[in-house]
Amino acid sequence: MDTLRLFSQFIRGSIRVVAHGGAGYYIWLAVLGVVMAAGLFAYGNQALNGLITSNMRDQVSWGFYIGNFAFLVGVAAAAVVLVIPAYVYNWGPIRDVVLVGELLSVAAIVMCMLFVVVDLGRPEFVWHLMPGFGTPNFPHSLLTWDILVLNCYFLINWFIVTHILFMAFTGRDYNHRLVLPIIFLSIPFAIGIHTVTAFLFMGLEGRPYWHTALLAPRFLAGAFCSGPSLTLVVFLVLRRIGKLSITDAALLKIGELLAYAMAVNLFFVGTEVFTEFYGETAHTVHARFQWFGIDGQSTLATYSWLALAMNATALVIFVAPSLRNRMPLLAAACVLAFGGVFIEKGMGLILPGLTPDALGEVYAYGPSSTEVVVGLGIWAFGAFLFTLMTKVASAITSGSLRSESA
Amino acid sequence: MGTPRNRRVKQAGEAPEPSGSSRRDFIKTAATVGAGAIVAAPAVASGFDFDLESFFQKNFRELSEEELDALVKRLSRKYSKKYGKDVSVSAIGPMDGVLYGYGLDISRCTGCRRCVHACVEENNQSRDPEIQWIRVLEFERSEALRGIDLKDGNPYYEHKEVPDEGKFYIPIACQHCEDSPCSKVCPTGATWREPDGIVVIDYDWCIGCRYCMAACPYGARHFNWAEPNVPAEDINPDMHVIGNVPRKRGVVEKCTFCIQRTRKGRYPACHEICPVGARKFGNLLDPESEIRYVMKHKRTFVLKAELETKPKFFYFWGTEGRS
C-alpha cells in the first residue's frame, strides 16, 4: 500500500517535472509536436486510403518503414550493450550515463514497434498473433519470435529504468541483487533482437541477397556503430544543456569502441562485395542493383556509395587518436557513422533484397511523401518520449525530484 | 497433334472452346447434391449485418462445423445484398485421395493472356486498382540460348497479335508448393496448405504484414494496397470462403487453383479458357489423370527447383518440333 502511494507520488511528480522547463525545452517540444502532428495526419491519410499512399507495390512490398525498423532494432540493442560494462564492472560514476543509454533503448524499441504497426495493412487485427487471442504461428514464423524478443527486451529495459528511478525517488539505492541478474539477462536479449531480426530476412530462401549467414553478424556490426554513435551525440547534447555530467574520457572511450565496430562493419561489407562480384552468379543481380543500379535505376546505388564514403570517413576519424580526441571531430564522425549505417542497414538492406523482384522485374522504389512524413512523425515521437523520460531521470538523479518522505 | 506452327491468336478475339473436357459442364449452380457445406442464400438479407461479428471471427481452421455453416450463410446473405444478386458462398472441403497438380505446355502458350483475364473474372480480383494473379512473361528466343532466366522475362508486352515473332511465353501464378515458404513465415497462420495441395489464405485473418510476399520465390502473392473494387455486375456469385470471396483492403491474395470450381470437379478458369490447350490439370494421385499423363510422357520441370519448395505446378515442352 505504501509502495503504491509512493508510486503514485512518483508518477505525479514526473508529470510535474515534464510540464515545466525553460524556453528551449518548450520550443524543442513544440517542434517535435508539429512533426508528430504532421506524422499523425499523414498516417490518417494512409489509414483512410490504404497503403496505396505509400510507394510500395507488389514488386517491392517492404520499404521505408521496414528499413527504419531494421535500423532501429540495432540502435535499441547497441545503446544498452554499451552501458552493460558500467553496471557489471562499476565503471566509474556513470549511473546517469547508464540511465540515458537505457532510456534511448526504450525509445528506440517503441519506434521499432511503431514502424512495424504503420506497415501493417490491417493493424486493427494485430491481436491475431497474440497468444490466447489469436493463433501465432510459433515457432515457425520468425516474425512471432521477433515480436517476442522485442517485447521482452522492452519490458526488461523499462523495468530496470523504472526500478532505478523509483528507488532513487524514494531515497534508496536500487536493489543490486535484483538489477544485476536482469542486466545480465538483457545481454542475450540485446544480441537476440538483432539476431532474430536478421533471421527474419536470412530465412527467406527465395531472396538470395538476404539468404547469407553474414547478415546477422552484419546487423550486429552495424548496430555497434549506430547505437554508440547516437548515444555519444546525445551525451554531448545533454552535457551541453547541463543535464548530464560525463567526462571526456568516457566519451573518448566510446569513440575508441566505435573504431573497432566500424572497422568490422566495413570489413563485412567488403567480404559481401567480394563474394558477390568475384564469383558472379545470377544472384549477384541484387548486389549489382545496390552498387551500380540496373536499367538506369541507380538512386539506391548513389546512396550506397554515399553511405560507404560516410562510414569510411568516420572510420578514419575513429581510428586516428589525433582526430578522435578532438571532440567536434568525434561528434562529426558519429553523425557520419549514424547516417551511413542508417542508409546501409535501412533501405540499403531492404531494397536490394526485393529488387529485382522474384520474377526479375526492377521496380524503382523510393518512399512516398506519406511514408516520409509518417516516418518523421515516429522519429519525433521517439525523441519526444526520450526527452520526457530523460527530464524525469535527470530531475531524480540530481535530487530535485524526491518523495515527500525521503 | 495438328496444331499449325506459329499459329497466331488475336489477343482480343473470341475464345474457342477448349477441347476434351467432359467434366466441364458438371456443376453450374450451387445448392446441389452432396457438396458438403455449400449453402445457397436468399437474394435479400433480412437481418442487419453487424460488423463486430466479422471483427471477432476466429481463424478459418478453428471454426467448428456449426460456426462454418453460420459464416457461410452470413457471407452469402451479406454479398447477395451488397451485389444485388444470388451469391452463394461455400466452404466445401477437400476431397479424399486428391492432390491437385497443374501442367503448362510452354510449346503451346501463345501469350494471349486470356487466362489472366478469365482468372480475374472468375476470382473477383479488383479491377481498380488492377490485381492479376497470373503473370505472363515474354522471352526473347535468342536470350534463351543461355538458358531461361526469369529476369529476362517481360510482363508488360503489348502486341497487336501474339505470339510475337521470335518470342515465347511463360505464365506464372502460385506454384502451390508442398514446402511453401509463404505459409511457413506467416505470423498469424492466415495462410496454409490444404490436404488437397492448395495453398490458401484466410482473408479475414491476414493482418497485411506482407512477410509472405517477401518469402514467395515466384512473385505469386498480391496485396490490396487500396480498397479493392469489382463492379456488382461483374461479380462472380459462385464463391468460396478461402477462394474468391471479395477481399478487403490490406490483405494478401493469390491463385487458389479456383478452389470454388476444382473442389466441385470442375477445371480452373484459366484451364477452361486456354484457346490452345496449353494448360493441364488434374489429380496427381490418380494414375489416369490428365496431369499424370503429362508427367509420364513429357519432360516436366518446376521453376526454381533448387529452392526445394516442391511446387505442384509443372512446366513442360509438349509438342516436339514446335518453335
What does the secondary structure layout of this molecule look like, with pairings?
The complex is a heterodimer of chains A (406) and B (323).
Chain A: H1 2-19, H2 23-49, H3 64-88, H4 95-119, H5 142-169, H6 176-202, H7 215-240, H8 248-278, H9 285-291, H10 299-319, H11 321-324, H12 327-345, H13 347-354, H14 369-397
Chain B: E1 9-10, H1 52-55, H2 65-83, E2 88-90, E3 100-105, H3 114-122, E4 135-140, E5 161-162, E6 167-172, H4 181-185, E7 191-193, E8 199-201, H5 211-215, E9 222-223, E10 238-240, E11 252-253, H6 259-262, H7 269-273, E12 279-283, H8 290-297, E13 300-301, E14 313-316
User: So what's the overall shape of chain B?
Assistant: globular
Number of domains of chain B: 2
Low-confidence runs of chain B? 1-50
* C-alpha-based Rg of chain A, rounded: 22 Å
Q: What's the CATH class label of chain A? A: Mainly Alpha
Overall mean confidence score, pLDDT of chain B: 86
Query: What strand line-up does the widest sheet of chain B have?
Result: 12-3-14-13
* CATH architecture title of chain A: Up-down Bundle
CATH class of the largest domain in chain B: Alpha Beta
Strand content of chain A: under 5%
Tell me the number of helical segments of chain B per DSSP (H or I, 4 or more residues long).
Answer: 8
List the quaternary state of the chains: heterodimer
Contiguous low-pLDDT stretches of chain A (5 residues minimum) are none
